[in-house]
Amino acid sequence: MKKMFLLCSMLMLVVACQPQKNGGDVKVVSEQDKTLYAMGAMFGNNLKNLSLTEKELSYVLAGIKDNALGKKMQADPAQYQAKVREFFQKKMTKKSATEKKKGDSFLTKFKAEAGVKVTKSGLMYKMVKVGTGKKPSATDTVEVHYEGKLMDGTVFDSSIKRGKSISFPLNRVIKGWTEGLQLVGEGGKVKLVIPSDLAYGDRGAPPKIPGGATLVFDIELIKVKATPAAPKKGKKAVKKAKKK
Description:
Layout: H1 2-17, H2 31-47, H3 54-68, H4 81-111, E1 116-118, E2 124-129, E3 141-149, E4 155-158, H5 159-162, E5 166-169, H6 175-180, E6 189-194, E7 215-225, H7 235-243
Helix pairs in contact: 1-2, 1-3
């Protein structure tokens, strides 16, 4: 909710700075126009998760414009905070339910493909290349190359495109990754299809990943490294005491 209110505050600045034309249309010409337009587009991308209708969005923009221009407010924002939260939650819940329904269909189709296996948790995977090296445990650090996609094929993250692998402790990522990568040996490649409850759940990871989304990952396990044990408390203090 804090992010949403910050978003609205920023949008107020954008609306206030843009010249208004007849009918509310704005012609983007100069570099400053484009900068402001791009800023608004980025904020609008966050609003996508609410799936607002054009009419609903018109009320949002009216409130932004009136407040930004110092006009008399038609509703007191302070008095409507609870209702705004309720509206926000309902929209996100509805959006999540829609995504989960799409996810169920997607999972059913993927499950029917040759070579696909399903774990007890509901994680689905297809081994593209069987690794011959060590398999990681949940507490190990892994080095991987990966590409994450939404069900429609949209790539939301890719170390492959960045041209740089990434390393991280396997127990500090989404559940689907923690479970799925333990099935692969070093040098192996796997395709994971992860239901929302093993990914980012109903909240998603806005603006790229909507709530309730089933995710698809193509992952290459490059290397498995044991995570260094955390130093025991008081160990340094004991050594210093001995030196004295």
